[in-house]
Write a structure and sequence with these properties.
Distance between the termini: 90 Å
Largest sheet: 10 strands, antiparallel
Strand content: 5-15%
Order of helices and strands: HHHEEEEEEEEEEEE
Helix content: 55-70%
Number of domains: 2
CATH class of the largest domain: Mainly Alpha
Number of strands: 12
Structural class: alpha+beta
CATH architecture of the largest domain: Orthogonal Bundle
Shape: rod-shaped
Bound molecules: zinc ion
Length: about 425
């Protein structure tokens, strides 16, 4: 048997709101372990209950058998009672008969007495006169004979009746013996019945005990289930709190990120506004190659990435990425008209595959110059552009300053050559 389960969970001990997510997750797994442990206790109790029920079944069988026994005894007792009743009735009948026969004897004696009296009254004062008063000897003889005959007849009659009474008395004695035997038998049956009832009483007590045990187990199981439910409810609270905490943290991170980006944008806007273009050259002398295009990053020669497949994607230009290139001048590779300027990207450092500024298309701040309707060139990831759309620029005009805006992992100039809008390998047109 298991000890009664008494553990209570201190709900105030671990207030979800006071814990970190990791702590809450630890509480959840600890609660889950407790729930599993309680399940083990439940299963053990279920086994105990099954044993008790098996015992109950055995008791039920025994009780049924005793019930059958008692029923049989009752039938026998009923039957014996009926027999006793019959015997009693027969004894009463015999009593009546004996009484009637005795009355008959009395009557016959009475009649005999009367007949004798009548004889005396008819002529003689006494028995002697019956003899003396006769007119002849024959007459006397016949008179005496008659008296004898009458006496003999009556005697016979009385003897017969006495024999009958004797017989009836014997029958009555027999019946009384039988009745006595039956009564003893009944007593014995009643005693057996009492014994069976006592046995049943014991079984009923055992039954009540095992039922009480089953009830106790069920109550204990109920308590354990309530504990399990309580733990599950605590876990649900933790789960909800974890979700809320994650949402809170995400919202806080998002807010902090947005605040930081806004701060950077303001800083950049201020920097662009304060930028002293007069101190920067607006033109760098460059020499065009045979293609008519010039190197767009004068003074920088290190190509960190060529045109072609890169990182499972496609790199549509070349990257010039010398150390210390940040802030260097990017110049028009060939003369033409500025057709696109984007100067609002504030995102300077490694990004997760896209630029969140919302408009640079990962190019960061950039300039596109159309040369003669067929060719165009792209200058990307500038810290800022210093030309405007519609402006005509000569080859070598500074169009912006090299930076790392947009989707970029460090300061470099991304340079593209497009033919009728399609990107081609810039190395076919320029060389450092
Ligand atoms: Zn951007
Ligand atoms: Zn690039």
């Amino acid at each position: 048997m298991l000890a009664a389960y008494t553990s209570e969970y201190d709900k105030t001990r671990n207030k979800a709101s006071a814990l970190t997510i990791a702590e809450m997750q630890e509480e959840i797994s600890s609660n889950k372990a407790k729930i599993a442990e309680l399940q083990g206790q439940l299963d053990a109790l279920e086994g105990n209950k099954a044993e008790e029920q098996q015992y109950q079944n055995i008791l039920m069988d025994q009780i049924d058998k005793i019930h059958e026994n008692i029923n049989l005894l009752n039938q026998e007792i009923d039957s014996i009672n009926a027999d006793i009743e019959t015997a009693r009735f027969n004894i009463e009948m015999l009593d009546d008969s004996i009484l009637r026969q005795q009355e008959e004897i009395d009557n016959n004696v009475e009649l005999f007495k009367k007949r004798l009296c009548n004889m005396y009254i008819s002529g003689n004062e006494n028995l002697a006169s019956v003899v003396v008063g006769t007119s002849s000897f024959y007459d006397m003889i016949s008179r005496v004979e008659m008296v004898n005959r009458i006496a003999s007849y009556d005697e016979q009659l009385i003897n017969d009746i006495l024999a009958d009474i004797e017989k009836m008395d014997q029958s009555k004695k027999n019946l009384e013996t039988e009745k006595l035997t039956l009564e003893m038998k009944m007593e014995e049956q009643e005693k057996r019945k009492e014994e069976k009832k006592a046995e049943m009483e014991i079984l009923n007590e055992q039954m009540a005990k095992t039922q009480a045990e089953i009830d106790r187990i069920a109550a204990e199981q109920q308590r354990i289930r309530e504990n399990q439910d309580e733990l599950a409810a605590i876990d649900a609270e933790f789960d909800a709190e974890i979700q809320a905490e994650i949402a809170r943290q995400a919202a806080a991170a998002q807010a902090a990120y947005e605040a930081e980006q806004a701060r950077l944008a303001a800083q950049r806007a201020q920097a662009i506004q304060n930028y002293d273009y007069s101190s920067q050259p607006s033109y760098v002398p460059v020499s065009a190659g045979a293609s008519g295009f010039a190197w767009p990053a004068p003074g920088y020669t290190y190509i960190s990435s060529y045109y072609g497949s890169r990182w499972g994607g496609f790199h549509g230009g070349i990257d010039v990425g010398d150390a210390g290139i940040y802030g260097g001048a990017a110049v028009a590779s060939r003369s033409g008209t500025v057709i696109q300027v984007y100067n609002s990207c504030y995102c300077d450092y490694p990004k997760d595959g896209y630029c969140p500024c919302g408009g640079c298309g990962n190019y960061g701040n950039h300039v596109i110059i159309s040369h003669d309707g067929t060719y165009s060139t792209v200058y990307a990831h500038l810290s800022s552009a210093c030309v405007s759309v519609g402006q005509y620029v000569e080859q070598g005009t500074v169009i912006g300053y090299i930076g790392t805006t947009g989707w970029s992992t460090g300061a470099h100039l991304h340079f593209e050559v497009r033919v009728n809008g399609s990107r081609v390998d810039p190395m076919g047109y320029v060389s450092p």
